[in-house]
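Worked example 2:
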Amino acid sequence: MSWTALLFLLAMGQPPAARPDSIGEVRGRVIDAESRAPVAAAAVVVRGTRIGTLTGDDGRYVLSGVPAGRPTLVVSRVGYTPATREVTVATGERTTLDVALTAGGTQLTTVRVAAEATEREQFRLSAAPGVMTVRGETLKRVPVIGEPDVLRVVQLLPGVVATNDFTAGYNVRGGESDQNLVLLDGFPIYNPFHLGGLFGTFIDETVGEFELMPGGFPARYGTRLSSVLNVVPKAEARSGVHGAVGVSLLATTVSLGGTVRGSTSWNVAARRTYADRFVSVFTDNQLPYWFTDVQSHIRHRFSNGGTLSATAYWGSDVIDASLALFGDSSSAGGGRLAFDWGNSLLGVAYAQPLGARGTRWLGADSARIMQRLSSTGFGTTLDLGNGSLRFDNSLADRRAWGEVARWRGRHETLAGYEWSSYQLGFSATASAASSDAILDVNNGPTAASLYVDHTVRGSRVLARVGLRGETVTGTGWQGLSPRASVKWFASRDLAFTVSGGRTTQWTPALRNEQAPVRVFDFWLVANRSTPVASAWQGIVGGERWFGASRF
């Protein structure tokens, strides 16, 4: 605030510069009138000129080049009543003036702060059609089955159709559910479902918001044909440690979170179903199924504006029962049915605004670099009775994603790369078989992508164009995916959008889309016999706002 006062007073005006033979110097000290303590960072200005300075930590100041005569000094500091002093300055001499400031309030003009709704800001700034952002508080207000579920809310959004009445799976504009890119804080999750698809894997207490792009998404997103769903973890704003325990008809959830010194936020949550324990209390019949989730997120902000965050997730579904429970006596040796599947994720992200030198080099008003590293895994194991017949499927995805963002005026440019290393395994073994494996498939392709995306925001037209180049080893395939979107504002509250582009996918899943309950997925990776899939999208849309909260 002292700098503000100083700059304001200096801008009041500047008379013709005084000749060197008609100036002097004023120095002195600014103190508190009651405590006599020095007042640091007080503005001392010669009224009617651009001559001014700030006091040091000891309250002292020096004003050079002060015109000879009887100028007036203005001394001000937030929290004190401004003081004016007339001083006599002789040519070539030093004059000492100490000023005591009296504590007092500063009358400020009215400040009005207003924020747009998230959807309204999206409408004004994004060229992507139909993008929807839902905050965690909204998620809790939606009627639920069992407990709050991100994927059940996604089913209610425009352009989305539920796979059926039973599962949390969803299709977007004709695509299948494995063609939806699902991200947790920007990191991919392959099978975001529990209990045969009836519930999603995301723990409600950890969700800050989620964003659905139901098509026409920018070139920075690849590897899926249909849509992008990004779930953003909640950043705890309260200091100390805070926790909650939630009990629903399905599971119990425990969550903890807090901040450390205002710069580091963290949260961790765990959930487990207890229906298997609950049923055993009332009957001898077994419910040999349960699932478990553990999720954590930590984010630290550095003094230079950079942020470092880490996200981890582990989830597991388990069926463990005697085959006699299912009335199956034909299995070799009877034994137990062991069936489990689940996801794991560990991701690290760093974002850093560039300083003045980097910004000038890019010819920008501001710029930022981002780097993400992640390791994602999905695995399925089915054992039909003590190894009599066993199936295993695993997919590991190790990914690096880097990006440079540049802003200048109404222009925004994103340029980046994405590199993924996959390891796919599928095997079938039987204890009675003559060989070790009936089927054993291993595949380890690598995918690489480069992209550029440019947005121009005019007064009536908002346009975004992008290009993504991709290749996958072991397939002999390379491709270019152009994407474009144009939004025209007919008025402040009415806009029309035309969008189109090409999308590609090389990690399909084997599934029965018509099955009411889909227990798990078998994932594959494209190779010489499994081609890379591609699709062209064309979208025309209109958006109309009715007031500040309805559209």
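The radius of gyration is 32 Å. The first strand starts at residue 23 and ends at 32.
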